[in-house]
Amino acid sequence: MIIQCILKRFLLFTLFFLFLIASRLPGTENFSVKSEIFQEFENFSLLIHELAEEKLEGFSGGDGSEDNPYLVASPGQLNNIRNYIGEEYSGVYFLQIDNIDLNVPPYNQGKGWEPIGGVISGQEFFGNYDGNGFKIKNLYINRPDENYIGLFSITRNATLKNIALTDVNITGNVRVAGLAGETRSSGDKNHSLVTHSYVTGKASGDQFVSGLVAHNISRGGTAEISFCWANVDLTGTGYKTAGLIGHNESIAGSAIVTHSFATGNVFSNSVWVGGLVGVNQSNKGLALITHSYATGNVQGTGQVGGLVGRNLSEEGSSLVTQSYSVGVVVGSSQVGGLVGLNQNMGHEAIVEYSFWDNTSSQIDEGIGLNNGTIVQVNPIQSLKPLEKGFAFYRQTYQSENSNWDFDENSGEWLIEEGFSYPWLRQNPQELAPGFTIPGSVEILSPEPDQVQVSPTAKFIWKPAVRAESYELEITAYGIAENPDYNSSYIYGTTYTLTKSLIPETAYNWRIRAINKMGNGEWSSSFSFTTGIELPDVITLHQNYPNPFNPNTIISFDLPNPMHVRLNIIDLNGRLIYTLLDEEVSEGRQFVDFNASNFSSGLYFYRLQAEGKSITKIMTLIR
Question: 559: how many CB neighbours lie within 10 A of its CB?
C-alpha cells in the first residue's frame, strides 16, 4: 500500500509538471487554451485519485490482529484484501460484519471479480478470513482462459470459515470453484482449513470444476475441509468435475474432507467425475473422505461415481468411509453408484461402511471397478419413506463395526420417520436429503354421508407425514376448479369455518398436506349434508382476525328473523360507519368489514336487535 501511495503522488507530480510545460507552449498564451489544459489536467488527476482510492479503500475498523481483525463490510473492502497476500501477511485476520452484494460495478462487468491471491509461490493468500455467517452475494467471474478461479485463487496455510457465497456465476478454465481454485497446506506443522462454509449457484470450465474448492492439496501438514456444502450446478469439459471438490490430494501429510455434502448436479465430457469429489488421491500420507454424502445427479464418460469418481492410493492411504450417495449416475465405463474406480497402486485404497441407493442412482454396482479393499459397501433399495423410517436405518447403517452414530441426543447422524436418508446433525440441510412432498391425509369428521352437520362445521383429520400446513376444499357440486369454500395455510389438524354454509345442502370436502417441496395428494372426497342450527339467544361474537388489516369478519347469532343494526363506533363514542341496517334471517350471520379508509387504532362494533344492544372492541393495525 505504501508503494501505491508513492505511485499516486508521483503521477500527480508528473501531471502537474506536464501542465507547467504545456502552459508555456506556443499558442497557450490564450486564456481559454490554458483553461482547457488545466481542466483536462484536473479531470485526469481526479480519475487517478479515484482509482487510487478504490485500491486503497480501508476497512470498517480493526488492525488485522486476531483480537481486533480488519472489519469487512463492502465490496471495496472485500476487494482490498488482495493487498494482503503473501507469507508476510499470514498473521492477518479479517472479519465480515455485513452482507456484501457484488452485483455492482466493476465486479459485475467484463471479466468480473478478480480472484484474491496470486498463483506464484509465496504470493498466495496466507491469512484468515471469517465470513461470520454473513453472505457474499452474486459473485460473477467470466475468465474462460484463466486458471485458479474463485473468490480466492490459491490459499496456503490459510483459514477460511463461516463464508456464505450465494448465487455465484463463474466461468474459468482450470481449477474453477466458488470459494477457491486451490486450498493448500505446506510444512509439517501447518494447517489449511476451510470450515462451516457453503456456495450456491453455477460454475463451468475445463478441468477441476467444482462447487466449493477445485483442488484441496496437502504438501505437508493438513489440508482440511469440514462442515461445508455446495449446491452448485457444474459443467466441465475436462476431467475432475465434482459437486464439492475436484481433487482431494495428499502429496505429504493429510487431505481431509469430513462432515460435508453436495446437492448440485454435475456434468462432464470427461473422466473422474463425482457427486462430492472427482479424485481422492494419496501419493503419500492420507487422503480421507468421511461422514459425507452427495445427492445430485452425476454424468461423465469414465470413472464416474455418485460420491467419488476415483479413489486412488499410490504410496499412502486413500479412504472413503461412512458416506453415501443417492443421485442418478451416468457414464460409459467404470461407473459406480458410490465410487467409479477404487484403485490400489501401491498401498491402501479402501472404501468401507458406505452406501448408495441402487434404485435412485439406477446403478446396480456400488464400485464400478475395484482392485482395492471394500468393506460393507451396501445398496439401499429405495422404498417409500413410511416403509423405511428410523428403525430401518438404524438396522441398515449401524452394523457392528461401522460406527454410524445415530444416538438420538448427540449422534453425528440423524434420521427421522418419513425422511428418506440420513443427514448430519452438525451440518444440516435446510431440507433433509430425500425430503419429499407430504403424504396423504386421512379425514375423520364430518364422516362420509353424515347429515345434520352444523353450517359452521368443524373439520378434523389425522396429521400427514412431512406436512407443514394443509389446504381445505368444500363444494356443493362435487370437486370442481372453483370450490364454494377454500382455505390454505391451516396449521393444525382441525378447522372451524368462518363462513356459514347453506343449511340443508349436500357438500363434499377434501384436504391435502403441503410443505416446501410441494403439495401432497388430495384425500378422498367425503360428502355431508348441513342441517338447521338455530341459536337460543342473540349473540355477538369476537371479530376474526383480531387485530386485523384491513379486513375482518364480524359474526352474530339470531334465534329468529329480525331487524338488525350493526355499527362501527370510535373511542369517543361517535358513530362512524353502519355495516348493517336491515331485516336479517335466523341463524349465524357473517359480515365482512373492510377498514381500508380507517386509521390504526381501537374501535367498537355494536349490534342492536329487538331492544338489545351488544358491544365489543376490535383493533386495526395498518
Answer: 14
